[in-house]
Amino acid sequence: MEDPEIKGKKKRGRPGKQTQTSNKKPRKSPTDKTLSMTRGRGKANGVAQQNGNGGEPVTLFEVVKLGKSAMQSVVDEWIEAYKQDRDLALLDLINFFIQCSGCKGTVRIEMFRNMQNAEIIRKMTEEFDEDSGDYPLTMPGPMWKKFRYNFCEFIGVLIRQCQYSIIYDEYMMDTVISLLTGLSDSQVRAFRHTSTLAAMKLMTALVNVALNLSIHQDNTQRQYEAERNKIAGKRANEKLELLLQKRKELQENQDEIENMMNSIFKGIFVHRYRDAIAEIRAICIEEIGVWMKMYSDAFLNDSYLKYVGWTLHDRQGEVRLKCLKALQNLYTNRELFPKLELFTNRFKDRIVSMTLDKEYDVAVEAIRLVTLILQGSEDALSNEDCENVYHLVYSAHRPVAVAAGEFLHRKLFSRHDPQAEEALAKRRGRSSPNGNLIRMLVLFFLESELHEHAAYLVDSLWESSQELLKDWECMTELLLEEPVQGEEIVLSDRQESALIELTVCTIRQAAEAHPPVGRGTGKRVLTAKERKTQIDDKNKLTEHFIMALPMLLSKYQADAEKVANLLQIPQFFDLDVYSAGRMEKHLDALLKQIRLVVEKHIETDVLEACSKTYSILCSEEYTIMNRVDIARSQLIDEMTDRFAHSVEELLQEGEEADDDDIYNVLSTLKRLTAFHNAHDLTRWDLFGNCYRLLKAGIEQGSMPEQIAVQALQCSHYSILWQLVKITEGVPSKDDLLALRRVVKSFLAVCQQCLSNVNTPVKEQAFMLLCDLLMIFSHQLITGGREGLQPLVFNPDGTLQNELLNFVLDHVFIDQDDENQSMEGDEEDEANKIEALHKRRNLLAAFCKLIIYDIVDMPAAADIFKHYMKYYNDYGDIIKETLSKTRQTDKILCAKTLILSLQQLFNELLQDQGPNLDRTSSHVSGIKELARRFALTFGLDQIKTREAVATLHKDGIEFAFKYQNARGSEFPPINLAFLEVLSEFSSKLIRQDKKTVHSYLEKFMSESMSERREDVWLPLISYRNSLLTGGDEDHMSVTSGSSSKTGSVRSKKGRPPLHKKRIEGELALDEEESSVEGSWMMRNDTLQTPSALQTPQLTSTVLRENRPAEHMPDPDSEPGSENDYVHNPQIQMSWLGQQKMEEVNRKDRTSMNYIKSRSNQGVRQTVRGLMEDDAEPIFEDVMMSSRGQLEDMNEEFEDTMVIDLPPSRNRRERAELRPDFFDSAAMIEDESVRLVSISAF
């Protein structure tokens, strides 16, 4: 603390150096201390600098950073030093700010006395560590986080301890403010950031001092007024003079504090609140919010509020967030609302619009601020403003939705009269007074017109309105309440449906205690308190709805929608309550109502809800299982007998069956199918009667489509339950053969149904065929289930063709065609989306068969050729199929791609004849499709090398397959296909381009190479695409690095490559000779697998692992030529055959030329090949993509994941100074320097 004797005294001017008393040991200056510590000093910018003997830290920076001493004692020691020698103490403080900025330099006493602040700052700028852009305020880790806190605390304690005298001496504060102002105007980010934080905390401390002075002034004024108002005899004149003197001193101190604050505000805040660095702007806004709340009389006015209002438009979410939090602190105090009225009117629209901010944290705080504004003044927000917030309760981001729910709660549920509610409840006989509030919630839900999002609405209100949402007694009373004569109906039919839906959602939320699907990242672990609340809520709702649910079902059993929702409630019960609470009679009542519902309804949703309820109640872990099982068996027995009887009558009457017979079969079959989905009904043998219905329908051709669809589905369930029984036990051979016969007969029926005249029957048969072929495929015997081999079915060629034709006829159709097929009925948007969803499911089911090698891969050619035409509808499915098939077999996938292009080309020839118009849109469409296919091969040309070469081989053979009937002088009929094939030439590496060109020459006569007519242009362009890239292609064998990579990567300052890698690449040309010789060892024919391997569902890394014997030599680069010399699979390739022939023709002089290259040329080539292969270059890809973003996605999807380099740190405000010590700026400067060097 300061000496009380000097309290209130002022020292004017800047005295010279004070003489030391003889009895005191001369104190070393900070400069001397620093010089004495240079030996043994630790690392600067982050590690405490200690003396050589490992003693305690001696500078303010070290003390504050370590934080071992109480900050008040540190400040008191500095004050004592200041009393002894102001210059040396201030020098300590100046060096403290310099070192806190991460600067290595130290201000010496002579610099302090003889140099201006600008010169000192310029000198310190030269002392920064250029190797790092970090400084204490930006360094990560808990130590530096604590340092920031200590730094701010030190400044606050310093002003608090000096507030009675030292800050008024016109020396310390002038020096500190002048220094901080100069540092805050520096181009060095570290100086600006640190000094701005220091200045803002200094300002906050001064505001606190000014507030105290204002309070003292008010107290002194009151004392003076009280003394002056006394009668003359009791008035103390001396006390009046003292009070006047004290008031005068306080006023002078107040004026000086105001001058200091004005200096900081105008010299630092006004410039830095719009700094280029978002963190600096955030500091300014955060502190001005503190000032306005702390000293509202002085700062809470439009002169200061405007800065916060302007910054609400800041481009960085961090700054906008600070603005909103600063305003929240102001709006929390209702006494400040009158002062905020003008600001609210001016910036309310902006605040409301920020509830839709792209940064979710900002949106949440904006909603909370709007809620505070609503609490302070309901008139401040218009209905439109409120509606903008209302719809956010349906947001997928839970914090935003919860904040909007709080706003909705304040707006709708906080303005009611409890007494009036209780009176209304008594009059209507209700036990809860919340009836009107629940009715308001229902009305809001209906007006929002988002009925499928009831769970989202409940979750949004769960934290703010939980007591209301758990009032299930009130909800039940509203639903069961009968209208009173003479009064309006409590709830309409639509409102009753909405209330039931909301009730079910509240039950689910309470029982599961986690947000609905789509909100949150998944189920989190509940705390002990949350777990207890969940158990209590579950018991409460179970006890209530065990009695109430049968009554609700009884009242609404005729309404399918209401019943389907109500039947979801039992799945959230604690079923032990039935037996523990002796409530079996309520269970019987529930089972009775469910049975009535089953007998009354045939809607699929209702029947499935009943089936699921029986399944839950029949759980073996509960004692009520036997009671429920008996009721279920009785119901199934009755339905089965009725079904068998009605089937007999229908089959006997045949074509003479009336509508009643058809309805009896259909209604019973629907009920049994719904139950068969969740229950094992195999002992009732439903498959037999269903199969009879299907066979009769096929033979007679008059079976109603709904009966056929249900019979197919029920038979499917029966087969699956039989398979479950077999897989769970030890099946006998007879059981396997019996099931095989059933499956075989059912597959035959489904295959026959594909030609049914009714589209729903065909679609159902197709989906079931695909599912059963997938289930009973070769994967059935994996995992140690070889005994199930008799159940494996492989579709023959006829079935595969029928499935493919069905896809082509029912999936790849235009919307207009579909509308015509539906007898001209106009579909609304929802029906169109539903139809598209159905077609996507059909396509996905067939594509799965291709991916898992159940249907031959060439069948995918008919799918791939529709990629461009139906890209918007099925592009994602086709692209995923292409990706998976390539993982299975790259070569066969490539042959399938070229086959799809050949099919399109043949279709075009049939339409236009042999004389194709190569400029037509149809030809351009085929070329565009080929370009898209080429992009899917990715950047790693080595991985796709054999596949691309095979594709070119098949394309060349197709182009020359048919000669022109008019003679050899005319081009082959398919020659124009080479123009399509040229789209894949860029995917060939240099060596393979030569090989493919040699193969092309085999089909060309001498006259063809001399032709220049237009009809021969496809051949000319294809040859050029193979020849022009031969010398320019410097593609490395490692993931596609280009020669441009070196100059680009060198900008990053990466370390030099390992010597072994360089030496390995220097021998690249010598390796080429051995590689070309190795092609001679390869077979003459292209080997393709006879059957595709099923892709395992593992990660890419696991899938691409190879045994140890196939690992490349550690000294060679991944993907080098040696991999292909020693890889037997690649040796057995068509490229080997072509290379063998090329080697026989190769002239020896070319090898000598390669070996005689200068070392410098080789080094430059290798540098272009090898430098930093981790990131491929994008220029070629971007040029070929023609600006289409989806092409880039296709390019990079299959072979590698590419991380784009970070973009340059653009300046946020052009008028501000550049940040010379920003890390991004340092990289930019370094890159410019390296580019200039590389130019030489």
From TrEMBL:
Residues 269-354 form the SCD domain. InterPro entries: ARM-type_fold, Cohesin_Scc3/SA, HEAT_SCC3-SA, SCD, STAG. Residues 1049-1061 have a biased composition (Basic residues). Residues 1084-1102 have a biased composition (Polar residues). Keywords: Cell cycle, Cell division, Chromosome, Chromosome partition, Coiled coil, Nucleus. Residues 233-263 form a coiled coil. GO terms for molecular function: chromatin binding. SUPFAM superfamilies: ARM repeat. Residues 1036-1048 have a biased composition (Low complexity). It is found in: Nucleus; Chromosome; Chromosome, Centromere. Residues 1-53, 1030-1121 are annotated as: Disordered. One of its GO terms (biological process) is sister chromatid cohesion. Its main location: nucleus. The keyword Coiled coil applies. One of its GO terms (cellular component) is nucleus. Pfam families: HEAT_SCC3-SA, SCD, STAG. Residues 1103-1113 have a biased composition (Basic and acidic residues). Belongs to the SCC3 family. Part of the cohesin complex which is composed of a heterodimer between a SMC1 protein (SMC1A or SMC1B) and SMC3, which are attached via their hinge domain, and RAD21 which link them at their heads, and one STAG protein. Component of cohesin complex, a complex required for the cohesion of sister chromatids after DNA replication. The cohesin complex apparently forms a large proteinaceous ring within which sister chromatids can be trapped. At anaphase, the complex is cleaved and dissociates from chromatin, allowing sister chromatids to segregate. This is Cohesin subunit SA. It comes from Poecilia formosa (Amazon molly).
